[in-house]
Amino acid sequence: MTTATPFEARQTRVIWPMSELTDHSGGHSLVDALTSGARVTLTWEDRQQAHFPLSWLRDHCPCTECRHTATRERLYIPLELPDSAPEARLEDGNLELAWADGHISRFDAGWLRQRRPGQESVDPVPARRPWAEGFQPARVAHADFVGGAAGERAWLTALLRDGLVLLEDGPLADEEVSRLAERIGPLRATNFGARFDVRSKPNPNNAAYTAIGLPLHTDLPNWRQPPDIQLLYCLENDAEGGESTFTDGFAAAEALRERSPEAFRLLSETPIDFRFQDEEHDIVWRAPILTLDHDGQLLEVRFNNWIRDSLRLPLDQADAWYRAYREFWNLVHDPRHRLEFSLLPGQMIAFDNRRVLHGRNAFNPNSGRRHLQGTYLDLDLLESRLRVLARSA
Amino acid sequence: MTTATPFEARQTRVIWPMSELTDHSGGHSLVDALTSGARVTLTWEDRQQAHFPLSWLRDHCPCTECRHTATRERLYIPLELPDSAPEARLEDGNLELAWADGHISRFDAGWLRQRRPGQESVDPVPARRPWAEGFQPARVAHADFVGGAAGERAWLTALLRDGLVLLEDGPLADEEVSRLAERIGPLRATNFGARFDVRSKPNPNNAAYTAIGLPLHTDLPNWRQPPDIQLLYCLENDAEGGESTFTDGFAAAEALRERSPEAFRLLSETPIDFRFQDEEHDIVWRAPILTLDHDGQLLEVRFNNWIRDSLRLPLDQADAWYRAYREFWNLVHDPRHRLEFSLLPGQMIAFDNRRVLHGRNAFNPNSGRRHLQGTYLDLDLLESRLRVLARSA
Hints:
The structure is a homodimer of 393-residue chains. With 393 residues, chain A is of the alpha+beta class.
């Protein structure tokens, strides 16, 4: 038997439907399937080989009894290990298993290849990339964002990668920020509402609603789960001052780790309280300024001087904590790492509120008007949207 | 000088306003304040003594320059340690500090006492309590919930403590669930909308929207941050079957830790993928079934057999993981730990979706109607609401 070349194989292989919507058409045909003990050894036509546990194969059966046809969800519950090996057959280069109890499972060869042990899934969601010196945000035209998948993908990719992206040349239309957000997912409502107006107001309950300068910060660190993504759409910006500022909190934290490991340790291991109170709310959460995963990688920055609550630390730890806080403050505000620019009417800045810090310079409310409309989105739904757009790319 | 008794002291002490809304009126007067090095040593009339760092006192100054009068937020930024000791004076039994630069800070004695180093804050939010054998959920009448703070507090306290509470004798009114939820906070919207109808539908995209039995599970473990609190309001329940089931996932996990430490370890240390796909969404998250904090305490259970995605584990780990999964499955579904009852029309069950698993028996959609309306809320806002209600208690 002559072996087909990979290219020919991809052209002629019979693709079996599986339960997921993800594409599995690109793989090679199978040329061998051998059961042995609690595993099946599969060989593809390019000699790639992989072992699959019987328990795994039974659990992943895509038949209509094991998967709901409409929801695609798993119905099979893996409560018993297969007690004897199935009969393995190849059909159209794909795998068919006949289990001892008569159940038949049919797996596409490409689908199995994507899932062989040790093989990671492929995901269009980009890795985070720290801002390099001189970083400037990617710009996407409003018309491209709303005009087709490519613009929206570019916007999503930049935002997920850099934590910041600028949309420009949009209409000066009330609620445009909500319309753009709802293309991605439902607005994430907080104690400030689902959509908020950033302008100088009488009786503010938040520093953003004044004209004072706002040092760099993250929003709502007093929530267990602060909002992920913030959108700020500029409708008016004629007042003197009011330039927007941003910095990559992860990059600043890494600079702190490099320069002052002890300060980094204190800020990542000392939980402090954040608290917001008004007549209607009293929202409290305790967490360190820098949250790390079990491997010491940064997960989140919580940094907001206004709503830092009373510091509850043993007497001998307070001064060291303040020194570490000050050091991080200075790094974050260092002009070398900080972006500063005026938002133009029709521009919308979007950023990852759990990574990128934002602020603004003071403005003079008597010199002109400044009005931004903002909302929040869940990162889960940005990633989801990028995956859906990538299906047809 | 004779020492006043504590009771008399509380009656006569002059309370100074501080920037927070929390009550600090209950403390004793100060009788001494001594600066020494970088600290001030305070003595209250009952001889309780505490040391406060100068850095801390400067940071917590409540004057109108250091705190915004309308937002109550901190304006002072602790960028410099106080370089010399302030002059400390007592006035009306409270503390006044005159700093070297002329700044004056005035602190109420009771406020300081609440915040002395080593003193934890008092919070009306109850600790979680595992379900004991024979646990039954607390019941609160709809009329009491909407009729005043006491009913709502009882409902919130039971829900936060037990992870489950039953509201009863409510009206059979469309959207009543939304009205009740909005007393607490904005609805938490997901890919299934802000408010969802649980009934058998044509073309379901979720097993809940069929008539099949639903084994115990948590909702949306494929989100980074699954919704915290779920409300399910029963409008109709005439069909045969459809009994609701619940179990305390934390208690079940602790039972697993006790009985099978290795299975517990595998489920808490092995991240697996959860994934939901339909035409509009592809939402993926990787996390272990049991999430622990750095001290090994349970933070969250993610358990949903329908949307477990392809298991990506090394060949030699798969069988052990399936055994551990099966063991936890059996514990969770053990009738000794599981509640089962029929929701009556006008009842609403609320539960902590990240702790308590829920399910239902299959029902016969031809035998009658079954219709629940559901939504989600953020735990942050339940806790906040309880704190606000406790202000006036």
